[in-house]
């Protein structure tokens, strides 16, 4: 039961991060929101494994963390390499 | 109760993300949200018990697709022109099609019901007999590598064919840029990232090996492991430079390895035929059919992992070298 | 004994979730990018620690615990680095911070 | 009529995603955005299959002695295959887009069609 409620609360946090990702306004705000969404999702996956009673599949959370990190680095790299006009706002 | 609530929230978030992807006009923002969309669908796959699929989607779908779209945007530019024609005609077409499909769902078997027709045929046999017949607990791996081995072989060939297509279309520019020397009072770019990726990359590769060989018992296998291995090199390329990555693993080495992976897969099939079995029937590989299946699955998963890892690295090299160094002369 | 462990793990989970929600509110309510980074990144590490410690108490000494520790280490390792890279990039590209003596900020104050 | 909201919600979202992807492909001119739309459509199909494979009270199809009921592993295999093929197709499409950008200087479909038509008209005159 406890795990279920933790899952729901983490979903709320993920939803809020998504709102920030939709709203922007600058590219960096979006990257921040995506990064935060990713870390909270890793935690969600970990808790969800316990919620369903089969917590042996935490490898997915690890891969998720890894891909999320590499994704953020890649976005930064490519945003840097395209010379941006002004403040990086949309 | 909580389960269906989580399900509904996740699906709603997915729908909202897809809508945001379409509404934005900065292609970088679109790509980022598309990455979120992929990762979110991976979470939904976990929630729907499809851990292997989630693993693949997180690694292949979210990681590689996003990376490729980003490196394409470097070449094509990231601002979208406003469409000249109004949205009304496509909107009408889409709403009509959607309405018809939604009407069709009313006859669908309900989500989660056990009497859904797809649970009646073939699947019960896999679920009941595969742990006995193949001897490995992960049913998805048994079906993927053994029962439907032809299918997976075709898929590996498709991935290889895509590599050939990409290399034919854009190629890899292996010309070295002049090495930049840093004077003593000037720091190299991204020092923090470089140090941490140096520390991290060996563990990522170790984790890839774990995923490769643990695929029989948990989620994982050649596809996922290959992509994670490629992700380590991609991280290296991103934090250092393309030339450094070429020094580390040259495309000259990778190209034959991609073909060797496919050959290992096909060769396993040939060996089973030579030993008197049918193509890709691993039971003949050892005296005991179960150990034979084990050896066979290990061999073909290795082939899959090798091909996928090298293909992903080569495709990434191709896109990034096109962006940084221009056309192949 | 089991009850104490349960209660402790629940308390840790609740603490982690509350921290997460605090950070989320921060990212929505704060006025500009740099303050939002502060809100999310500071809560991130402790939130991860609390939740994963709570789960470890539930899991006991198994492979699951080892994996949880790896996830925690990975998050602790990558999350600050990502934040660092992000803020550094934003600063280099000239994203202006929101300052109280900023002309635009004063104009906003005057409006509200 | 009695409609089971929880039982059909997944399918409705799947249809919504499909239509969003379809709309992106037919209404926008930017080729990269079209590829993203195709990917959204594709993910909708994945969701459809995986939703159908879920069994209430079932568990991950990895054998364990304490588990009685498993979700259907067959759609998982099909979709796992489809995801990797999808990425291969995306890579090929993006490579084509890069070539189009180099040949035409734009990735806007309208401009490309206009340039093609002008080229045809010029050839006809000759």
Automatic annotation (TrEMBL), chain A:
Annotated TM spans: 31-51, 58-79
InterPro entries recorded: MrpF/PhaF-like
Keywords annotated in UniProt: Cell membrane, Membrane, Transmembrane, Transmembrane helix, Transport
Coiled coil: none
Any one cellular-component term (Gene Ontology): plasma membrane
Membrane topology: Multi-pass membrane protein
Transmembrane helix listed as a keyword: yes
Cross-referenced Pfam families: MrpF_PhaF
Domain of life: Bacteria
Subcellular location: Cell membrane
Main localisation: membrane
Molecular function GO terms recorded: sodium:proton antiporter activity
First and last residue of the signal peptide: none
Protein family (similarity comment): Belongs to the CPA3 antiporters (TC 2.A.63) subunit F family.
Protein's name according to its UniProt entry: Multiple resistance and pH regulation protein F
Protein source organism: uncultured Thiotrichaceae bacterium
From TrEMBL, chain B:
Start and end residues of each Na+/H+ antiporter MnhB subunit-related protein domain: 192-313
Pfam families: MbhD (PF13244), MbhE (PF20501), MnhB (PF04039)
All copies of domain MrpA C-terminal/MbhE, residue ranges: 106-170
Record localization: Cell membrane
GO CC annotation terms, alphabetical: plasma membrane
Highest taxon, organism lineage: Bacteria
Major site of localization recorded for this protein: membrane
NCBIfam families with a match to the protein in the record: PRK12504.1, PRK12507.1, PRK12508.1
PANTHER family: NA(+)/H(+) ANTIPORTER SUBUNIT B (PTHR33932), NA(+)_H(+) ANTIPORTER SUBUNIT B (PTHR33932:SF4)
Annotated family: Belongs to the CPA3 antiporters (TC 2.A.63) subunit B family.
Protein name: PH adaptation potassium efflux system protein B1 sodium- potassium/hydrogen antiporter subunit B1
Originating species: uncultured Thiotrichaceae bacterium
Organism taxonomic ancestry: Bacteria, Pseudomonadati, Pseudomonadota, Gammaproteobacteria, Thiotrichales
From TrEMBL, chain C:
Full protein name: Sodium:proton antiporter
NCBIfam families: CPA3_mnhG_phaG
Key word Membrane present: yes
Keywords assigned by UniProt, alphabetized: Membrane, Transmembrane, Transmembrane helix
InterPro entries xref list: PhaG_MnhG_YufB
Gene Ontology terms for molecular function: sodium:proton antiporter activity
Taxonomic placement: Bacteria, Pseudomonadati, Pseudomonadota, Gammaproteobacteria, Thiotrichales
Residues spanning the membrane: 7-25, 46-77
The keyword Cytoplasm appears for this protein: no
Xref: Pfam families: PhaG_MnhG_YufB
From TrEMBL, chain D:
Pfam families: Oxidored_q2
Keywords: Cell membrane, Membrane, Transmembrane, Transmembrane helix
InterPro entries in the cross-refs: CPA3_antiporter_subunitC, NUOK/Mnh_C1-like
Signal sequence, start to end: none
Chief localization: membrane
Keyword Cell membrane: yes
UniProt topology in membrane: Multi-pass membrane protein
Protein location: Cell membrane
GO cellular component terms given for this protein: plasma membrane
Keyword Transmembrane: yes
Gene3D superfamilies: 1.10.287.3510
Residue ranges of the TM segments: 6-28, 73-98
Assigned protein family: Belongs to the CPA3 antiporters (TC 2.A.63) subunit C family.
Descriptive protein name: PH adaptation potassium efflux system protein C sodium- potassium/hydrogen antiporter subunit C
Organism listed in the record: uncultured Thiotrichaceae bacterium
Taxonomic placement: Bacteria, Pseudomonadati, Pseudomonadota, Gammaproteobacteria, Thiotrichales
